[in-house]
């Protein structure tokens, strides 16, 4: 799933930024608009959600990641949420928002470092402390919207992997701990970069 989401985000991003011609750009614009409408919504609320996500993914999810019953598998749900939030993130963007090697929480920490809003850190803390996946998803959507406003991107392949891990009780605490660390380090590194720039 990690490879599939990353490759799909890279392709759609390249197309929407006009790197593959006008026809590809127009097609990507339609795909992202459709995905964006589902951002932050439970996958179960729309019977077309899973189908549309699986059709967009290239390469496709491997057999072990696919569900086999009446509910989406953790990998399918994570791919759906990652791609719909990516579509939201790319709305009106003129630069890449899928940035390899930058975690979601690091980007949030960078946003905090350059923001004057006193509510940003409490919002991120609420995400970490959310008791349900639905509440966590709502907070995540809110953070992605704020990141879009400042044109700060992150790695959607890694993000999808983290979303999948959050569905497992034995892995959730580790992901949230890492997000807390990444947020703090993103804030400090961004502040250090600003200090270096102002000294030059």
UniProtKB/TrEMBL annotation:
<protein>
    <submittedName>
        <fullName>CRISPR-associated protein</fullName>
    </submittedName>
</protein>
<dbReference type="InterPro" id="IPR038287">
    <property type="entry name" value="Cse2_sf"/>
</dbReference>
<dbReference type="InterPro" id="IPR013382">
    <property type="entry name" value="CRISPR-assoc_prot_Cse2"/>
</dbReference>
<dbReference type="Pfam" id="PF09485">
    <property type="entry name" value="CRISPR_Cse2"/>
</dbReference>
């Amino acid at each position: 799933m990690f490879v599939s989401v990353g490759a799909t985000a890279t392709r759609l991003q390249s197309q929407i930024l006009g790197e593959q011609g006008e026809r590809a750009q127009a097609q990507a614009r339609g795909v992202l608009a459709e995905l964006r409408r589902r951002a932050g919504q439970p996958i179960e609320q729309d019977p077309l959600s899973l189908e549309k996500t699986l059709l967009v993914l290239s390469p496709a999810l491997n057999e072990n990641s696919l569900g086999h019953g009446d509910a989406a598998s953790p990998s399918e749900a994570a791919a759906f949420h990652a791609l719909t939030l990516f579509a939201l993130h790319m709305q009106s963007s003129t630069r890449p928002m899928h940035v390899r090697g930058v975690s979601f929480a690091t980007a949030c920490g960078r946003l905090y470092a350059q923001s004057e809003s006193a509510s940003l850190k409490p919002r991120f803390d609420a995400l970490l402390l959310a008791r349900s996946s639905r509440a966590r998803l709502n907070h995540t959507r809110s953070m992605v919207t704020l990141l879009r406003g400042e044109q700060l991107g992150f790695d959607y392949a890694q993000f999808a992997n983290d979303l999948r891990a959050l569905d497992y009780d034995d892995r959730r605490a580790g992901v949230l701990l890492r997000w807390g660390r990444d947020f703090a380090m993103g804030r400090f590194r961004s502040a250090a970069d600003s200090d270096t720039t102002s000294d030059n």
